[in-house]
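User: Sequence for Sigma-70 family RNA polymerase sigma factor below. Tokens please.
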Amino acid sequence: MIGVAMRLLRRRALAEEAVHDTFLQLWKKADSFDPARGDARSWLYAILRNRALNILRGETRTDLVEDFEPMGLVSEEENAEAVMMRLSDTGSLKRCLERLEPARRQAITLAYIHGLSHGELAGRLGVPLGTIKSWIRRSLISLRECMA
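Assistant: Structure tokens for Sigma-70 family RNA polymerase sigma factor:
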């Protein structure tokens, strides 16, 4: 678990904090685990991932507003297209991502590479929250089918 947290947080102290917090949450919410919904290991790592992303975001959530620039929320990170261009030309992931519409491809890369939540994506892309959720869901289904 430390290895997964290290990949997300890039600092050992933060990774250890995330793992510790994950186990605390598991202890408190153990009764909420439903084996019919999935494997215990998947549940554990989902909690760890969410905790690590919250640490990366500084425990704050971005409210949806019309103008992000005055708040300093425009990212200086590379954009979705630049990330895609770095993928290998022969890789199946790049081929499958190219099949997606540009807006959906951008939503997927922002969510999974930069760790943005649905609400943050909706605010950044100027799209309703429900639309973002359906884009992510349908795009992941499409990517899964393409990669299979």
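The domain at 2-56 is CATH 1.10.1740.10 (Rna Polymerase Sigma Factor; Chain: A).
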